[in-house]
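F.,

This is the one I mentioned.
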């Protein structure tokens, strides 16, 4: 083989052996797991906050989410029977517009509910069901949306996001009285919740149009 051919072969071999930058990290112990979780939180904080405010993401925030995605996969691989990494994965996929991937991750999270859940576990489970309710709502599957929204409320009856999600579903099902009560409860806990205020105004406008 000529020197040129040998050099080309070495380049091809080297390229084939190059590590995949998108491959999940191998997490070897709890210390590395915590460090990975901290990095994921840093990368997703801004995007998740904007998502909760129903605001669009910047291209930089989208890139941060894509960087966080393989880190979460590494967390799943290290701790596959914990709901936490699946919940993070579900929120991330949902934020990126991948509802199918989000639903799969969230359903996986539900498989690992602790036998004796703590109050923090209940809040996390409420968030999972609230996220699923929103996914089903967008699919126009209002029956499953309502089931999950009410499960979220059973677990966290004073959580503003769960209350707002339940109200959204009730409005769609033409149960305005229930929706109004949920929104009033949400605003009592979180007076500055923009989505609750918006939906409450929507209900009140509808009531104003009815004959007296």
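My design for it:
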């Amino acid at each position: 083989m000529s020197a040129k051919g040998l050099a080309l072969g070495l380049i091809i071999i080297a390229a084939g052996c190059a590590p995949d930058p998108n491959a999940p990290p191998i997490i070897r112990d709890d210390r590395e797991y915590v460090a990975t979780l901290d990095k994921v939180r840093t990368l997703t904080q801004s995007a998740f906050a904007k998502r909760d405010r129903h605001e669009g993401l910047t291209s930089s925030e989208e890139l941060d989410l894509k960087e966080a995605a393989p880190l979460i996969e590494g967390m799943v691989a290290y701790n596959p029977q914990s709901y936490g990494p699946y919940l993070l994965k579900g929120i991330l996929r949902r934020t990126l517009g991948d509802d199918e991937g989000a639903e799969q991750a969230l359903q996986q999270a539900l498989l690992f509910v602790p036998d004796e859940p703590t109050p923090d576990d209940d809040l996390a489970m409420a968030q999972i069901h609230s996220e699923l309710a929103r996914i089903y709502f967008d699919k126009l599957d209002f029956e499953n949306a309502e089931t999950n929204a009410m499960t979220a409320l059973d677990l966290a009856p004073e959580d503003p996001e769960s209350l707002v999600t339940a109200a959204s579903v009730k409005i769609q099902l033409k149960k305005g009285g229930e929706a109004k009560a949920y929104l009033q409860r949400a605003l009592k806990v979180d007076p500055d919740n923009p989505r609750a205020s918006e939906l409450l105004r929507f209900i009140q406008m509808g009531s104003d149009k009815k004959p007296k």
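The two ends are 94 Å apart (CA to CA).

Talk soon.
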